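Hey,

Quick one before I head out. I ran the complex with 3-isopropylmalic acid overnight. Inputs first:
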Amino acid sequence: MARIAVVAGDGIGPEVVAEARKVIDVALPGVEATEYDLGAARYHRTGEVLPDSVLTELAGHDAILLGAVGDPTVPPGVLERGLLLKLRFSFDQYVNLRPSRLWPGVTSPLATVKPGEVDLVVVREGTEGLYAGAGGALHRDTPAEVATEESLNTRHGVERVVRDAFARARRRERRKVTLVHKTNVLTHAGSLWARTFDAVAAEHPDVSTEYQHVDAAAMFLVTQPQRYDVLVTDNLFGDILTDIAAAVTGGIGLAASGSINPDGTYPSMFEPVHGSAPDIAGRGLADPVAAVLSGALLLDQLGHADAAARITAAVGAELASRAPGVAVRTAEVGDRIAAQVSA
Amino acid sequence: MARIAVVAGDGIGPEVVAEARKVIDVALPGVEATEYDLGAARYHRTGEVLPDSVLTELAGHDAILLGAVGDPTVPPGVLERGLLLKLRFSFDQYVNLRPSRLWPGVTSPLATVKPGEVDLVVVREGTEGLYAGAGGALHRDTPAEVATEESLNTRHGVERVVRDAFARARRRERRKVTLVHKTNVLTHAGSLWARTFDAVAAEHPDVSTEYQHVDAAAMFLVTQPQRYDVLVTDNLFGDILTDIAAAVTGGIGLAASGSINPDGTYPSMFEPVHGSAPDIAGRGLADPVAAVLSGALLLDQLGHADAAARITAAVGAELASRAPGVAVRTAEVGDRIAAQVSA
Ligand SMILES: CC(C)[C@H](C(=O)O)[C@@H](O)C(=O)O
Ligand SMILES: CC(C)[C@H](C(=O)O)[C@@H](O)C(=O)O
């Protein structure tokens, strides 16, 4: 039976993860879960972010379920770079998978977009680019200060994620992949992405392709999100585009993600796209749907497509039944979805 | 009298620039305009993108009116880096000013946003960041290829654009500045931006401030664009966010911009946010409003606030009078706005 590690993390993380576990437990009884106490509280208590011993233990699991990481009391970057990105990079989670669909019952902020019309997935590169941590500063706190951030991109890293995007497109109805970059300004990295994309595309004549600059893609996600099937892009562009995609499909309260190591060398990690939302933490107001759907992605990745599909269907029923404008209660949502799964 | 250089450029550039000039001519008779033939056609004819002699001539003008640059027949980056960015950088146009408002008569793709409710301006840094052109590649076209792009940020460059944003906020009703960056990942550049922002904010106790990560800002521009007054951000984030802001306020057909050298050492440059749109070029279908409004920003920058205000009012009348769904004809729009200005 599957052994998963649970990192509930900060803010609303523990609340939404509790509901995801509730639902996983009924969808696939017997999943063994071990909790790891990581995040702001541990950092304040011990100064530790992610001890090597914990990293090693996590590596021994089949998958990781993560809530949220980040707290205003911790300097920016400490938990994000030291915990979240450390896991994505250490476990070579090069496919950051972020599906967005407009569910029946959910109102898009876009006037003309109807449920069922948007069904896209962003395949975001997860282990390179500006997230590599290559940067520095000189003459800090003086008028002469200079700070750099370097985007590192390899053929190895680009090709494997582009291949994953094409493989996913082949399993979808529309079979279309959009490459998003900024080749007209970032000419070196852009050229590497474009050439690699073209080479992989040539091996997939049954998949249609297009290229868009990131600014244009950001715009079209607002004006015509229906046009997209699979998007593939770099780490930072993917970060931004997936929040737009989430916004037009009902908000990050519904957006799930997987940081996937497709080779299976290391565990993959599943987490809602939303952050720790300290302003509403501990009040039972967070929508656990994103965490629950991340749990479904997790089960799917572990080969339990059936259990995953039952969770997804139950989420669909939950969303379709919501009265507009009524605030959600975290635990009640989890209860309803769990009941629906076992029905 | 003002002497301006006109770079009509590629695609729809010449068409929309012709209308902008028509309107400028009636708003402020006597502006002397010199045309410079730069862009894809010249590149194909002569191999030249921006000869030094032309750069020197351009420097002698009071301002530059630019249409659009870019053509599918030219490798990505050649015209963008060699012409557009070369001008922005050579002329130290460090404030890339991009106002977005939802005009009466214009329908936002957002269901709940009403005309008059969105009125924001993005102050995008124009001379640093990932646009610096610092990057390279090794082992090109081999499996070992690596490509880098470096974001360069200086206290000098950040402080001057942040100061400009606060100065603009002081002249606006809401007096609010939002800093957008990604401090939790780009820790070096993010820290420089955040510390500089805080220092300048301390000198402006009458201006309220907030910070948002770029992914959150991209989302809020879709869900709550009303919340923003002035946004200040780096070159690449500004590129993406201004296309979203344009999308939610009726599209890039209406979005004007100025690449401004506030010190007056070099000419500032004014251009629509849209690109060359080769698919509709030469057919009289492009909306010239963005170019016309860029002309208004140009006149304002040169001290002709009155003429600028009359153009802006005439654009307002044009937009308010448009029947929904009717395609625009480039020259007719220019004629109507010009007639309104002289009325
Ligand atoms: C918290 C942050 C480091 C993270 C990212 O930028 O990847 C988040 O925004 C996300 O999208 O998962
Ligand atoms: C054409 C391109 C180089 C340019 C940019 O990225 O700045 C454009 O997108 C813009 O926003 O003016």
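Chain A touches chain B through 66 residues (CB under 8 Å).

Talk tomorrow,
K.
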